[in-house]
Amino acid sequence: MIHFLRMPNWDLIPNLIYGFLERNGGVSARPFDTLNLSYRVGDDPASVKSNWHRVKNRLGLDGLPIVTLKQVHGDHIVTLSNPASKDAGEGDALVTRTPHTILGILTADCVPILLVDPSTRVVAAVHAGWRGTLLGITEKAVQHLKAHFAVHTENLQAALGPAIGGCCYEIESHIFERIQARWGPDSEPAWSSHGERGNLDLRTLITHQLYGAGLKETQVFRVGPCTSCSPDFFSYRRERKETGRQLSFIGWLS
Ligand SMILES: [Zn+2]
């Protein structure tokens, strides 16, 4: 059975479709079991194709593409104005206000961030690991929505989906020093140091970046557990790099 996590207050937004999928309910064999949706991780393409069919059936999206990117841990934002292709090229964020256009982000520990402004009917989907977070891709996505879609910050809502937590995400301290040099005190609540290494909570860091971009506590939500702690999600760290990718998606049905 395919399960996905939702945001209770987003169900009231007309024609919006969105969710954070778990890893169960697909056909892929180990180590991609079972609902791997990435063609780029070494899984059998026939299994991945079958998984995409299952997802579209489950969501009632037959014939409607879910657009994904070749994610590269950068800060390039791609705006979609027509739903023609399911492949949007290279980048780490997608934005649209076009009907029948569903945006997808694939992750296994990195943070999937979904943004919606119900008043201008603009949505965005962002992929952020430590590199994208250092570059401030989520904050840049907010600035992009303001500059190109006349979005007012007070109308935005952000949902940070299942991602590796501070409990499990240990990195070298020099990486955090780069983050701290760029983001200053905003970065400190996300870090707990133990010498040469420390634990980083990406969702806490991104939440503070969003506050810095003008969003309030009532506009930023955390959905789902730590991917490394929960067997219901793919985790790059827990599976020692060989694993699948889960989908987070958002778009307009009409
Ligand atoms: Zn954990």
From TrEMBL:
GO MF, any single term: hydrolase activity
Pfam families xref list: Cu-oxidase_4
Keywords (A to Z) from UniProt: Hydrolase, Metal-binding, Transferase, Zinc
InterPro entries in UniProt: Cu_polyphenol_OxRdtase (IPR003730), Cu_polyphenol_OxRdtase_sf (IPR038371), Cytotoxic_necrot_fac-like_cat (IPR011324)
Reaction equations catalysed: inosine + phosphate = alpha-D-ribose 1-phosphate + hypoxanthine; adenosine + H2O + H(+) = inosine + NH4(+); S-methyl-5'-thioadenosine + phosphate = 5-(methylsulfanyl)-alpha-D-ribose 1-phosphate + adenine; adenosine + phosphate = alpha-D-ribose 1-phosphate + adenine
Family, as annotated: Belongs to the purine nucleoside phosphorylase YfiH/LACC1 family.
Name this polypeptide is given: Purine nucleoside phosphorylase
Organism: Tectimicrobiota bacterium
Upper taxonomic lineage: Bacteria, Pseudomonadati, Nitrospinota/Tectimicrobiota group, Candidatus Tectimicrobiota
